[in-house]
From TrEMBL:
Sequence similarity: Belongs to the NDK family.
Cofactors required: Mg(2+)
EC nos: 2.7.4.6
Organism field: Metabacillus sediminis
GO molecular function, one term: nucleoside diphosphate kinase activity
Protein name: Nucleoside diphosphate kinase
Function: Major role in the synthesis of nucleoside triphosphates other than ATP. The ATP gamma phosphate is transferred to the NDP beta phosphate via a ping-pong mechanism, using a phosphorylated active-site intermediate.
A Pfam family that the UniProt record links to this protein: NDK
InterPro entries membership: NDK-like_dom, NDK-like_dom_sf, Nucleoside_diP_kinase, Nucleoside_diP_kinase_AS
Length: 148
């Protein structure tokens, strides 16, 4: 089964959107495998956003993601990587459609509420960065027989 890493960014936590965001993925039918509220260190931020090093917004991005607590999650399900990206909406909330998380709650690209892995490789890398194996829980969700 496919896994992805999703994270409510500091703006989303401050705006009390953790519950709202959890609910969207729960109601969709995906399965939560791990979650925690945490403060990202400078080192973790640089590692997580390594692909953006050198870009004009990189320093701002690292500063922002370490500015307060984030809510890190691992979600499972068929096609969860691509589908969760669709549920998040375009990177810039200005272009994100209504009905998506960024479209409904974000205004500017630098404060776009949520992060999600963009490929299977990124998902594996990011889950490994943020979670220890023992923090992830495998279980049979009874409702899966109604979803699949
Ligand atoms: P993530 O899920 O957070 O990785 O977003 P993404 O995959 O939709 O976008 P991308 O990986 O290209 O960019 C990472 C993050 O950098 C974005 O979510 C934005 O928060 C931020 N970002 C991207 N472009 C800009 C920009 O032009 N200015 C600022 N301030 N931030 C940007
Ligand atoms: Mg990205």
């Amino acid at each position: 089964v496919e896994n992805t890493f999703l994270m409510v960014k500091p703006d989303g936590v401050q705006r009390q959107l953790i519950g709202e965001i959890l609910q969207r993925f729960e109601r969709k039918g995906f399965q939560l495998a791990g979650a925690k509220l945490m403060q990202i260190s400078q080192e973790l931020a640089e590692e997580h956003y390594g692909e953006h090093k050198g870009k004009s917004f990189y320093n701002e991005l690292v500063e922002f993601i370490t500015s307060g607590p984030v809510f890190a999650m691992v979600w499972q399900g068929e096609n969860v990587i691509e589908t969760s990206r669709q549920m998040m909406g375009k990177t810039n909330p200005k272009e994100a459609l209504p009905g998506t998380i960024r479209g409904d709650y974000g205004v500017i690209v630098g404060k776009n509420i949520i992060h999600g892995s963009d490929s299977p490789e990124a998902a594996e890398r990011e889950i490994g960065l943020f979670f220890k194996q023992e923090e992830l829980v495998g279980y049979e969700k009874l409702m899966n027989s109604c979803i699949y």
